[in-house]
Amino acid sequence: MPVSRRFIQVAGICFALSSLTTLGLIFLPRFSPEALDATSRARLILDTAYMARRWIALFHPLIVLTGAFGVLVVRFEAAADLAITGFLYYVFWALTEGIQQSLTLVALDWTWRRQFLAAGSDAERAVLQQYMDGFSALSDGFFFFLLIAFIVANALYAAAVWGGSSLQRIVAVSFGVSSMLGVVSLLTSYGGTIMPPNVMAVAYPALGPAGRLLTGIWLLRASGPDIPLARAL
Hints:
Number of strands: 0
Number of helices: 7
């Protein structure tokens, strides 16, 4: 059963759209007020920019995963082993990030932070603060795993896409750059003083969204006749 040209176009649009969602995730926090204590952090649920970022973060992995499947379809015949394995790691990344963001939205924002703001005593707020502090460590654990999956997925896609036109080679390089940015994020988040934290703050906005946009353009250009993915399955 062939995969339609229209789906590849949808996948290309999703990858291009993910450049915008990535920019939203990067820059929307700048429009939220500083949250230096438990009360101000709880009040973030009343902030439009903060909640907009929460919803974008929830749908972002689903959008990227659709685009990633388009890459798998286009490169299936030329590099099935790398493309399939890379997509599998994209699934790991998207699933982990989706669970992390769902828990953040439902457990942290909709439940504990609302209860914290409505609490009538310091004792209630102290208990809820323990929940929120514990959740922060749990979220960090999810982030650690999704970073590893992200690094591997992009490294495999860089190898799977390499070759062909100049644009395709640039897209392959962008996947490699994304993998390297994942390594930088891992080191800045969990490597102590190995790498300054501001390295990721500068590199990711400059390189990440551009690579996703170029991948979307490449997929749109690659959407020729229906692609016989399933004949090899």
